[in-house]
């Protein structure tokens, strides 16, 4: 079908950036990129200081923002109404249930009207709050502010906390003295965002980002010392990230090097920052493992020995090398073990079986197991864990697309769950007014793709309802069928809100992920199109009422379906879209490119990978055809999907669009990958996107 022009959008001349063709020849194939100049030569400087952006590039981006404002003129009242609705569903003075650790219980809270959380503690059994860090106060006068990790020292006297003030994800670490409420002179810039104290709290470990935004070095910072920070370990492979973590017993520091398919750990005693990190199991391409310290032993979650959906091993803490691994929970095909938590007497695992998550509790002595059961057709679970090791209680969260998030403490010995908190929706929410369903869409190759959806009870399934179909499908990330208050602003206006659980995620096990990466990446796109067509066939919507949305790697999905099946969608919203896939994967100087090769392929080294990516890369496959209305969202200081990808894509789309539907770019010149940093300013961006969707389907009045 051909979409009619969307008359709701006014006519206005779109920005037309100058074409400055640049040639690039790889594997004997020459490509011309007329908009390559939109990539700032000094992009690394721009990440840290947006004022360094070249004037001609800034002028174009500002023109794009002026253009989208013209096209969205008249929706201001709608945006304000959407914002008010979404804000009204947020309990403004919300607070977490504090989690016990030693003499205190630690939590976070928001003040009414506040944009950022404050972190606090109370005496273990309750009492007056002691504010440790006030996010609103720290953010005063800053156009962007985001708090990274916040960790208290083992002796409960200090905090190490990180903050990003540009949106570029270069975090500065500071140390706060809790008694005085003041930060010490200790300060470290360009870090990964969090620090881990050593056993006595005399210093902390942190990762330093290199010029390509890769955490590549681990340092120890001794508090107040005149000596320089000590390099503990450097990861030499540009294709690997590095992270550092501690243990609940404060006995180990864990150093993990990893990419998207391989991991490697080194450990050192938390009470000896001078110790040489000890390798656990050397990296082997495709071997993944995670360590969970458990007193005298480590539990190891791994896919070793062909355990595609993972198994659990154990090894003595004195020597956890590979030859000492012994099986505890065997591999079961189709049951994907997602994560584990070890306590003194129990081992807890979160797994997915038959497409649904579940929590299993295992007694360490004897191995008896039980499952925590739930009743809804589709739901989401999360392990909040515990701060302590010697405990019978851990915390988990539960929600569904109709049920607000519930937080429980669970006693592993008595099997009693205690409801601590139910997410409040101040403006009101009645779960019985909504219906949640799980459908299975047939893909072209016969696979059945799950769809989770929610709509108002009583909605006519005659194809007249508008629908928002969301998708991601990369890195093995599963989009849960969880409660989302924002989408109710669409659902209450008659929308169906649906999630396509396409290949590339782990929704149906690890195989589901493998079937949506590298040479099999096109399955992600055809799965999404199949879900769209299934929703239409089942009467949930029609193609001229269907809106698609995805962000980051899900934005790549949006770019691909725009090229492959533009007639199936009325509009597309692509958030920080990874659309210039081939050029980015061909440039190993860009942030994160080498670590991405296991996910997408290495088109520099492999002609086959080049051809696979070239065949679907959204920017390279734009062609003359009528496109649906498209809104691309970007952030100037985004180190993950650089701003020029959506800027180039939008420009090329306009060149080839033979229809009349608008194609626009909204770029936040003060933020990065995650958009605006405050909880309410972020809602303004969602309100803008929703207003675009409503306008596209003729419901903006």
From TrEMBL:
Q: Which InterPro entries match?
A: AB_hydrolase_fold, Pept_S9A_N, Peptidase_S9_cat, Peptidase_S9A, Serine_Peptidase_S9A
Start-end of Basic and acidic residues biased regions: 16-27
In terms of SUPFAM superfamilies, this protein maps to: alpha/beta-Hydrolases, Peptidase/esterase 'gauge' domain
Q: Which UniProt keywords apply?
A: Hydrolase, Protease, Serine protease
Could you tell me which residue ranges the Peptidase S9A N-terminal domain spans? 19-422
Q: Where is this region: Disordered?
A: 1-27
Per UniProt, residues of the Peptidase S9 prolyl oligopeptidase catalytic domain are 483-698
Q: Is ATP-binding included in the keywords of this UniProt record?
A: no
Family, similarity comment: Belongs to the peptidase S9A family.
Task: Quote the protein name from its UniProt record.
Answer: S9 family peptidase
Give the organism, scientific name: Chelativorans intermedius
Lineage, highest ranks first: Bacteria, Pseudomonadati, Pseudomonadota, Alphaproteobacteria, Hyphomicrobiales
